[in-house]
From TrEMBL:
Transmembrane segments: none annotated. Residues 71-101 form the 4Fe-4S ferredoxin-type domain. Pfam families: Fer4_7. InterPro entries: 4Fe4S_Fe-S-bd (IPR017896), 4Fe4S_Fe_S_CS (IPR017900). This is 4Fe-4S dicluster domain-containing protein. PROSITE patterns: 4FE4S_FER_1, 4FE4S_FER_2. GO terms for molecular function: iron-sulfur cluster binding; metal ion binding. It comes from Cloacibacillus evryensis.
Length: 183
């Protein structure tokens, strides 16, 4: 049985690890989400920590003001454009954007990425769930270079039914990362 009141949802969300029964507490309304071209930001920040770059970087005011610097972020989905600025600014890599309007069976997820090698547009990457397990493959359609820090935003086409699971991507790295003459 799912949560029925806001206080129950907040309690689940603050438990630390997001699992199936806590996801609905942080997602936009389903009807709006499925119709919103460009998608919506989703912030899976389950702990109260002193952090607010999502709020200070949001150009539309969609991330609501914090009463306390330790508050868990909340989003006004009527103001969210899915621009993805919060994705590159979140130091906890807790922000991402999901666009459900890409195709009838595919969605686009814009994810933070701070590893090497960088994914390349047009290439296939492994799509990972919250615990790092490969759950699908996806096609990279964009890699956005950060303007203010080192977090890239990687846009990946994924199966629509996995939007509630995919939270990271992995690039197949070469077997040896040392200079060629040392391998």
């Amino acid at each position: 049985m799912g949560c029925t009141c806001a206080c129950d949802k907040e309690k689940l969300f603050n438990s630390g690890v997001l699992v199936e029964h806590t996801e609905g507490a942080v997602l936009p309304p389903k009807e709006a989400w499925e119709a919103k071209k460009g998608g919506y930001a989703v912030i899976e920040c389950p702990k109260r920590i002193p952090c607010n770059p999502c709020y200070t970087s949001c150009p539309t005011g969609a991330v609501l003001p914090f009463e306390d610097i330790n508050d868990v972020p909340r989003i006004d989905y009527a103001k969210c454009t899915g621009c993805g600025i919060c994705v590159s600014r979140c130091p906890g890599l807790a922000c991402f954007v999901i666009d459900m309007t890409y195709a009838s069976d595919k969605a686009v997820v814009k994810l933070p990425y701070e590893m090497l090698p960088l994914p390349e547009k047009g290439k296939t990457v492994k799509c990972l769930n919250r615990v790092g397990e490969v759950v699908a493959e996806g096609e990279v359609i964009a890699v956005t270079e950060p303007s203010k820090d080192r977090t890239y935003v990687v846009s990946v086409v994924i199966p629509k039914e996995l939007t509630d699971q995919i939270r990271a991507v992995a690039v197949n790295a070469p077997a040896c990362l040392r200079p060629e003459e040392e391998c």
